[in-house]
């Protein structure tokens, strides 16, 4: 793997910052290649060479936030990161994922609806594996893989938009589901 040149890394950071600001201000419609190039101070050709097209730029924005979130739940401080009981970590993870979803809802909608299995790519599999392990540890009698899918389902971007539930309501609903998942059978 080749090392990214320092100037290329700086340009990438400027481009992603400008793109994120445009999306925050204008929504996904604001993510035009010419607008991002102008806002970041790079040429449109640089943008196309680097990201291919608008969707490549959107995926780069998602990827940057995804890396931050995964770093937090894999090695960050508890309760999201290691060091807290598994049940607490599941709750912190789900609440963090709600926040992460709302932070890039339009971008995630675009990415998750790109194809029939687009939602189930690398990030979903990482979430599923992480939740399955934590659930199995917290409640060995649970069907952890099924429970992980059930807990992740309400966070599909299209369902979040369709239902219109605010973050607090989603977190509360997930807490209720989680209570049932972690309860041991009597």
Automatic annotation (TrEMBL):
Pfam families linked to this entry: TetR_N (PF00440)
Residue span(s) of domain HTH tetR-type: 9-69
Known DNA-binding region: 32-51
Molecular function terms from GO: DNA-binding transcription factor activity; transcription cis-regulatory region binding
Keywords in alphabetical order: DNA-binding
PROSITE patterns (alphabetical): HTH_TETR_2
PANTHER family xrefs: HTH-TYPE TRANSCRIPTIONAL REGULATOR RUTR, POSSIBLE TRANSCRIPTIONAL REGULATORY PROTEIN (PROBABLY TETR-FAMILY)
Name of protein: AcrR family transcriptional regulator
Source organism of this protein record: Nonomuraea endophytica
Source lineage: Bacteria, Bacillati, Actinomycetota, Actinomycetes, Streptosporangiales
